[in-house]
Design goal:
Helices cover 26% and strands 29% of the residues. The chain has 198 residues and is an alpha+beta fold. This is Lipoprotein.
Length: 198
């Protein structure tokens, strides 16, 4: 009786071992299968590239062609665009003589007109981020010929002449800087030329 139970025990162990071997044989245990499985898992775990948001795309780089970097403020760039003939015409600036600030890449960035010997402010326009905005400075045309400061809604623009005229004629251009101060504390300085005359 004891001998018979031992035989049965051994037969059960053998059957269990065979079953384990058969199950192992059914699954693909080749190295390639392991690599495929791990490759699928790793590719599923890797995040996909996301489209950059508008905030990711904003930079403090200068607008191409106008130079100068924005400093301070809320971090957004001060963008000055060249005024078109249509922009200037629609502004309907009055005055006998005018001045303009231009850079080598964008001309003009600021245009203003005023009367000689006038106590009335000279009126001007500047194009900020695609919008034409009005600015003014006291003293008419005479107030613009030196180093004028233009005021507008939420902005101040200072022209500083930095050298002698670069050419001849009745109204030669002079090297100058334009410093744009925004109400939030942002500032941008551009190098170019200030030219006043008929």
């Amino acid at each position: 009786m004891e001998f018979t139970q031992g035989k049965r025990y051994r037969a059960g162990v053998v059957a269990a071992s065979l079953l384990t071997l058969m199950l192992a044989g059914c699954s693909d245990s080749s190295p390639d299968a392991d690599d495929d499985a791990s490759g699928q898992a790793s590719s599923a775990e890797q995040p996909t590239a996301q489209e950059p948001t508008r905030q990711d795309q904003t930079t403090d780089e200068p607008t191409p062609g106008t130079g100068g970097e924005t400093r301070g403020g809320d971090g957004s760039t001060i963008t000055l665009d060249a005024l078109t003939a249509s922009d200037i015409g629609e502004a309907n600036l009055s005055g006998e003589l005018g001045c303009q600030f231009s850079t080598a890449q964008a001309s003009p960035l600021l245009v203003a007109k005023g009367n000689v010997d006038s106590s009335s402010a000279a009126q001007g326009v500047v194009k900020v981020a695609g919008y034409v905005e009005r600015v003014s400075t006291p003293g008419g045309f005479d107030g613009m010929t030196g180093n004028p400061t233009f005021e507008g809604k939420g902005k101040t623009l200072r022209i500083e002449v930095t050298g002698e005229p670069s050419g001849g004629g009745e109204s030669p251009a002079r090297p100058a800087t334009l410093t744009y101060d925004r109400a939030d504390g942002a500032q941008r300085t551009l190098e170019g030329e200030w030219q006043c005359g008929p």
